[in-house]
């Protein structure tokens, strides 16, 4: 992610959540410890966990030891640090295998990816990022970029994130964009204008386009399921063609695939 993140903004959001009277503070803080682990941050000590969560070192130490006892963290004694334990992976597997939307979408996505020789992904939002639930790679051009289930991408830069913003109410979108702006210390004004333009174009086109990686063009469309859960479907290719050319080629198949998934999900009720 090519941005400068302001840690204090995330800490402020977490502190606001901690003040919510209906939440169990200890449980929420424990979850924040688990959230601190990301690719490239697989081994974290008390100081790093405290910095990432906004919690005191004493609280981090107590919660981390509890998570070790629960089997969700492993303690590396020589390095005086923690890493995620295997049961966390089993939670992810249970989520993927138990998701009715993913069970419906995955085979339809694979068929479309094979037919068009493109990458097809499905993601949901988690705070200020999008998380891939599924990513089927059939790109027509060899690329070093690989995307797998569980990988996170920034909302503000990607077609996935911008399509998600388009599916929100105006007040929800404004609140999320405020948080995004607080995290970005540089370049936010330009990005904000790009997002607002994308929202306007979405009303005409029904999808969002972005090219935030070199020679990668992606189109995305939101799928709002019963209960108002928002999933976002995308198609992408690594190409030297222009974004407009890719839009002309993939917009209709993307809309058709989203329609099939939406209709199949609605039949579940």
Automatic annotation (TrEMBL):
Ranges where the IclR-ED domain occurs: 87-267
Q: Which InterPro entries match?
A: ArsR-like_HTH, GAF-like_dom_sf, HTH_MetabolicPath_Reg, Tscrpt_reg_IclR_C, Tscrpt_reg_IclR_N, WH-like_DNA-bd_sf, WH_DNA-bd_sf
Listed GO MF terms: DNA binding; DNA-binding transcription factor activity
Which spans of this chain does the record mark as coiled coil? Answer: none
| Domain of life of the native organism | Bacteria
For this entry, the protein name equals IclR family transcriptional regulator
Swiss-Prot/TrEMBL keywords: DNA-binding, Transcription, Transcription regulation
Per UniProt, residues of the HTH iclR-type domain are 24-86
Q: Name one GO biological process term.
A: negative regulation of DNA-templated transcription
Pfam families hit by this protein: HTH_IclR (PF09339), IclR_C (PF01614)
Q: Which organism is it from?
A: Acidovorax kalamii
**Region Disordered: start and end of each range?**
1-24
């Amino acid at each position: 992610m090519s941005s400068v993140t302001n840690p204090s903004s995330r800490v402020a959001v977490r502190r606001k959540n901690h003040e919510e009277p209906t939440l169990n503070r200890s449980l929420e803080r424990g979850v924040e410890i688990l959230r601190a682990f990301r690719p490239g941050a697989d081994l974290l000590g008390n100081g790093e966990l405290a910095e990432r969560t906004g919690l005191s070192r004493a609280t981090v130490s107590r919660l981390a030891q509890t998570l070790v006892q629960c089997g969700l963290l492993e303690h590396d004694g020589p390095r005086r640090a923690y890493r995620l334990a295997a049961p966390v992976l089993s939670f992810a597997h249970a989520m993927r295998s138990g998701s009715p939307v993913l069970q419906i979408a995955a085979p339809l996505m694979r068929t479309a990816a094979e037919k068009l020789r493109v990458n097809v992904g499905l993601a949901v939002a988690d705070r200020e990022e999008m998380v891939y639930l599924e990513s089927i790679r059939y790109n027509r051009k060899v690329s070093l970029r690989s995307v797998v289930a569980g990988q996170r991408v920034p909302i503000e830069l990607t077609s996935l994130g911008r399509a998600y913003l388009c599916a929100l109410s105006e007040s929800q979108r404004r609140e999320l964009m405020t948080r995004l702006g607080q995290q970005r210390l540089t370049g936010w004004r330009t990005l904000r204008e790009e997002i607002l333009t994308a929202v306007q174009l979405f009303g005409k086109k029904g999808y969002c386009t972005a090219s935030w990686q070199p020679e990668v063009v992606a189109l995305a469309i939101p799928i709002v399921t019963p209960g108002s859960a928002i999933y976002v479907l995308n198609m992408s290719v690594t190409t030297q063609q222009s974004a407009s050319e890719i839009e002309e080629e993939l917009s209709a198949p993307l809309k058709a695939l989203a329609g099939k998934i939406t209709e199949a999900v609605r039949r579940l009720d």
